[in-house]
Amino acid sequence: MKREIPVFIALLLIVALLPALGAYPIFIMKVMCYALFACAFNLLLGYTGLLSFGHAAFLGAAAYATGQSLAVWGWPTLAGLLFGTASAAALGLVMGALSIRRSGIYFAMITLALAQMLFFFFLQAPFTGGEDGLQGIPRGSILGLDLSDDLNLYYLVLAIFTFGFLLIWRCVHSPFGQVLKAIRENEPRAISLGYDVDRFKLLAFVLSAALSGLAGATKSLVFVSATLTDATWQMSGLVILMTLIGGLGTLAGPVVGAIIVVLLENKVGEWGAMLAQWTGWNGFRTLGESVTIVIGLIFIVCVMAFRRGIVGELAFRLRRHDA
């Protein structure tokens, strides 16, 4: 870790300086929210071996809870963020208790079914605004910091992402994290060693849900809205894609995966227009309408060339080179 600290601090400083270098703060904040979401999901899949198909439920539930507390009840911003995170954790406790007693595809299907039930609840509940979503969520202020200023909000989101990332790092490198890895590698052996496997899996599920909720609550502040998109099964698939592209079971992998996916979603149209201008072939202009195809192709390339994900493959080759 001693070698990683300077790199982490340097990257943190670079991200902190991005707005001053001309980067659009809202875009970077969106990347950080999804990166935190992917890191939280990776804690469950990459380190515990539990594949959830319904993790978007926590992102969406926290966004709605935060929006309701700030826009309707008039709570302070910090209380709204904590309420959104706590709501996701409570939901994770219920969903985890119902699903962790099954494994493999059965676990994945239970989480998907529960998330779909919650999606239809959000669709029909009057407080969510239905298909229009919950709009006009006030950002408010924290410790006198006016969050209506994008730059102030940017540094708050950066602090939240750093907190979530370091929390995951601490968990992974603690005895708790070692037990999670043991469960992932060989659950029967972990049981034979005397560990209460169900309790550890439930703790990992709740922690992952809470951090996903923190990402959702923060995202609702960034976009001052909470919409059904945050709770769809497509969002659950997207976070799986981010994690696999970046590198399953690596700390930095989900961050890299989130950057790639968000960049593709937002910039493919611009890149297509640039390619059309340079090459004179107008077919590149349709790339913006085919983002899912482009993401699918990138995913195929990553699976073929980086079977451990981009970060996982690089780390593997570096270790082999050092040996």
Layout of secondary structure:
Elements: H1 4-17, H2 25-48, H3 56-72, H4 77-99, H5 104-124, E1 134-135, E2 141-142, E3 145-146, H6 150-172, H7 175-185, H8 187-192, H9 197-222, E4 225-226, H10 233-246, H11 253-279, H12 291-305, H13 310-322
Antiparallel strand pairs: 1-4, 2-3
State the strand order across the main sheet: 1-4
Strand content: under 5%
Shape: globular
The helix content is: over 70%
What is the helix tally?
A: 13
Roughly how many Å is the radius of gyration?
20 Å
Calculate the terminal CA-CA distance, rounded to whole Å: 19 Å
Mean pLDDT: 90
Structural class: mainly alpha
* Order of H and E elements: HHHHHEEEHHHHEHHHH
Contiguous low-pLDDT stretches (5 residues minimum) are none
Instruction: Report the biggest beta sheet as strand number plus sense, adding barrel if it closes.
Output: 2 strands, antiparallel
Please provide the count of β strands.
4
